[in-house]
Amino acid sequence: MSHKSILNPGTYHGTRQHPPFFEGWYFKMVSADEHHKLAIIPGVILGTEQHAFIQVIDGSDGSTEYANFAIEDFQPVFPEFNFHIGDNTFNARRIHLAVYQPECQISGDIQLGELTPWPVSLFSPGVMGPFAWIPGMETYHGVLSLNHILQGQLVLNGKAMDFTGGYGYIEKDWGKSFPSGWVWMQSNHFSRPATCLTASVAIVPWMGFSFRGFIVGLWVDEKLYRFTTYAGGRIERLKISETTVDWVLRNRTHRLFITAQRAEGGSLKGPTPLDMGKRVVETLNASVRVRLETLKGELIFDDTGEHTGLEVSGEVERLVTKNHETSP
Questions:
Q1: Is residue 212 within 8 Å of 125, Cβ to Cβ?
Q2: Which pLDDT does position 323 carry in this prediction?
Q3: Which domain holds residue 64?
């Protein structure tokens, strides 16, 4: 990857990459009346098969659609966050959809308000921090907008959806394949407007070994509270059951309590080194209670986020804390 692409997480990173490689963008949208919620995932896979795709999950019923395109239909505009898949356009200002395939029909235009990206600097180019500079990692991650306003309408398989006045969120992943186990969650819908939680923990391969790496950001009152492995953050508790994810983290100044209520979801396709053959169950109907305190116990934030995206996938038993790890 070039320096220019590392400092632009939204751009396409696969120009000089050889298989196996994947790259996918994740656009989550919830309407103002909260009746409609979609995640639209465009991307490319370079493996034993090579193609572009547009994947959709409808949070109202968990149904998923997958539209397949020739790899030549994917046209990035380097170094911008801007690309086309056939007649479909995705960038920092708009989404234009014109998919008319038997397995997926979705059309319309969504205008995106001003994006709120995870800060990018030379020493910490986005959510990956200094790890973004390290070549050959299994998966790279970017958060392109923690929160923005939507305007426009879509029609999915004959169902009209108006997203005007709703909230959106954008992230992306690229690399060789998804991790062997991970938990991911995200919500924009707290009682305090323009608040966002994005949180992920995964098994990260590293020089023949692996470790539990995490990236958590809470955007509240126009301030980003960060809890990350690379900045010395620590997991004090992580318990996963059939109904909940119970997670406590700390950094040098704050402690974050996260309790997510799991919900039924739909089955998405995810990348392996060969193809889009990994089954990923995602819901947009979870909820998450978030409490932020200083290490001295001063309460800063306590609220519940609805319409939460949640994935609990793979070897999650390797992620949970053992009894001797749990702090009082």
A1: no
A2: 66
A3: 3-325
247: exposed, middle or buried (Cβ count in 10 Å: 0-12, 13-18, 19+): buried
Task: Name the pLDDT band for 326 (thresholds 50, 70, 90).
Answer: very low
With a CB cutoff of 8 Å and minimum separation 6, the contacts of 82 are 11, 76, 89, 90, 91, 92
> CA–CA separation, 199 vs 137, rounded Å?
19
Cβ neighbours for 186, distance < 8 A, ≥ 6 positions apart: 28, 169, 171, 196, 197, 198, 199, 308, 309
pLDDT at 28 (0 to 100): 98
| Residue found by looking up tokens 């959510």 in the block | 127
Cα distance between residue 308 and residue 36, in whole Å: 13
Q: Model pTM greater than 0.70?
A: yes
Question: Tokens 């539209």 sit at which residue?
Answer: 67
The answer to whether the CB of 235 falls within 8 A of the CB of 214 is yes
Tokens, residue 170: 């954008």
Domain tally for the chain? 1
